[in-house]
Predict the structure of Citramalate synthase.
Amino acid sequence: MAARGHRFQERDMTKIHLFDSTLRDGAQAQGISYSVEDKLKIVAALDKLGVSYIEAGNPGSNPKDMEFFRRVAEIELKHARIIAFGATRKVGSQAAQDKNLQSLLAAGTDALCIFGKSWDYQVTDILRTTLEENLAMIGDTIRHLKSHGKEVIFDAEHFFDGYKANPDYSLQVLKAAAEAGADCLVLCDTNGGSFPGEIYAITQMVRQEVKTAIGIHCHNDSEMAVANSILAVQAGASHVQGTINGIGERCGNANLCSILPNLQLKLGFSCIPAENMAQLTAVARYVSEIANVTHNEKAPYVGNDAFAHKGGMHIDAVHKNPLSYEHVQPESVGNTRHILMSEVAGRSTLLARINAIDPTLGKDSPQTQKVLDRLKELEHEGYQFETAESSFELVVRKELGKYRPFFERKDFKVIVNEPSANGINSSAMIKIAVGQQEEITAAEGDGPVNALDKAMRKALERFYPAIAEIKLTDYKVRVLDSDKASAAKVRVLIESSDHETSWTTIGVSTDIIDASWRALVDAVEYKLLRDQEKAVQ
Amino acid sequence: MAARGHRFQERDMTKIHLFDSTLRDGAQAQGISYSVEDKLKIVAALDKLGVSYIEAGNPGSNPKDMEFFRRVAEIELKHARIIAFGATRKVGSQAAQDKNLQSLLAAGTDALCIFGKSWDYQVTDILRTTLEENLAMIGDTIRHLKSHGKEVIFDAEHFFDGYKANPDYSLQVLKAAAEAGADCLVLCDTNGGSFPGEIYAITQMVRQEVKTAIGIHCHNDSEMAVANSILAVQAGASHVQGTINGIGERCGNANLCSILPNLQLKLGFSCIPAENMAQLTAVARYVSEIANVTHNEKAPYVGNDAFAHKGGMHIDAVHKNPLSYEHVQPESVGNTRHILMSEVAGRSTLLARINAIDPTLGKDSPQTQKVLDRLKELEHEGYQFETAESSFELVVRKELGKYRPFFERKDFKVIVNEPSANGINSSAMIKIAVGQQEEITAAEGDGPVNALDKAMRKALERFYPAIAEIKLTDYKVRVLDSDKASAAKVRVLIESSDHETSWTTIGVSTDIIDASWRALVDAVEYKLLRDQEKAVQ
């Protein structure tokens, strides 16, 4: 922290363990609720990125989490340990008899995180027990879990507020956890009200008092969670808790998408394998889509605007030397520079995708340019292909002339009647053509999208019986331009699956039925295309 | 910065000057463009709040700004000085002949802000002149403006990067500005890449080298702009530049909505009159509305979620003592606490909400039980009230008999035709009744939800003209039971806003049109209910 001539930052290859809580503390955020499938997908993405720990649920307070822990145990992870989270034993009970601790052990993870109180007033006024019993609860719990061979991380709730009120007691709490065998002591700024200077000073003092590894857990209520986490590391913490995109209750948790590059690219700490850093933007966007929240395009490092340049002066300078207005290279975190007047997109990423379909094309082939132009046009309309890879593949194929449509839509009409009698209130008429043959049919459904989906399948099934295998497994809608109220553009993402795999397609339109239709058509065509290719092989 | 026992923060009544650049640097953000009227409205709101400076435009680069400066001169401001912003004189020219400086003076403000380069490489490689000429440009410009009696604030662009590359030169730049008579030297972290520790150390060194007042100007590219600004103040800066809601290019400028309460409520500096602090949330929302950007509901201090509590454990603790999970009182910044309903929230949470409507009911009243039963039934159907507080309130009122519907739906019918001609492909017919009066009407729209929304507003507007104020700002759909494909249950969340606040409503149905309809009706009824209650007060 002190100034040393020009060496304001120490370059340090020390390993810092990232502890992701997107699935646990992140699930406390307003509007967030994950299915078991959502959680498994996020686990896979975080493990691929290379975080050290993934805190995934609280089996004691949420019985639904047990299915997740059973299923995640079947997955082989490369980098991460899965964490089950819970409280210490209850006041006046025995650790071995505590139901929550039994659920925690039953989750079957190798590592656990438990939280306990470290602010004297919280013990006496909220928990309503003695300061001694609180120390015993923490010690007993950790010893019990350690006797089962678990790695145990201890979250000292309200640590900084506690230290400011009663430093001796908050240190006693840490020492009780350390003596019981905790592997890491995490200092929590639970209310998010602490300042960088005090986080630095208190962490440094704790560092001198205990030998156990120190962690940091910050909330963003003062908009300083990232800086607070960084300063804790500079004061000696080696474990950082946070969430992807800062998802979390109130103003969010410390944002790992900023902390990770700050620590690794700027300060030289080692958090994840260096070659994985370029996955960061994709992981951030993927989590936003799964959590069904609007991705923050102004987010440092991982937002679309993070490397966008508008002012003419700035753009000139960026062309002369990107260092003029960019603190890191956008590619280092898998993002791209956006020049807002005349966009120049990242061609090499695209080329890799094009070569998967046609390996003969090069960076400067006219066909590559044609695909690029079409994608820009679609992105301008609101398409976003990060999560809709199947639609992306169809677009590339169409532009390369490697695609023959399976059918042609001639017409459709949907009628919705309210009030509905037993849910079936919509009917759809559809007319399609396959080659020279036409088919007109109709179906009823629960709502217009369902009616249309059923009518389309009915019309196509006699030509393509494999359509019966498609199951629509998820359907998400986002409003793109919210100023225009219900006439705004909507983006529909449809996830489909058959017995072998799942795939996601996208449709954008001002009309939700039309957007859904486009995504449905892509879903069907992608399935038929895949079956056709397998038949050829 | 250093630890002093428990006194980690100095309480300091020192005056800190807030310099708001929402209208100048904020206008560099993607998607932001203000009319002259917009700018005048924001000036009035900022002056009422009590900031010291309002940087409002760059008359040299934007001739349209002249009209603004002419009109703003007619307004009497209570707290703020208006600032015109511009560059130093051009390379090799005379300050008195420089066109930009002439425009700057023609703006007629008492105070000006000029920027100059303080990073040697930027002078030689971007500006392409000598280091000496750059010093002369800065000195000449400031002397010229001072000779016209202006207060002159000097922005040292790229100061921190410059200091790290060549500390001697960057200090020469500051000294040249100070000797020429600058009233304040602003250290800019133009690329937003600096770290809190180095900002603190460098600001402290500058403080020792020059006697002139020091300012700080940060960008948020490393998500540390707020912390960096705070540390600069703790190191001796007395002037802080930023924008409302952090509006600004790339990842935004330092957010005054967080810096202000951090400095004044937490550290005890004096930035604005104490009695004005409770205006903060309203000013933040007002600027979002005028700038036409979605207000960030997770924003510290001024977002709807900033004091929202979800977990049952947290809620119990907040009821026992708000300090448990709140770093400041929501009312201190003009915000309010939100207790979110969810499966983890218990009866005490519910009771607090019920008591807001009927204070006479107790935990064991039969009516409380009735509300609880109805909520469980709705949650079982797929309703989730944690984000849809407004629908929640309507449900409670209905169960308590404290609700009279504003209208009755008699019938509706929606027809969707494809292919669509110019997007307008849907039409809706609706029949409603208000008391004994019936209204039947129809509307066309982009998609069925839009058509229905428009038809409903059209039918109701003659009874309730305030409906015209409602703006639909977000629309989200989640599939609840994805196994059933497109016939699955969907949950629609609609966020609406007017000039004062925003509210969220929910609808669940197997039919997306029906679910949307329910959420739309709640949105309208909640607005009318709120207006009615205000009228009664």
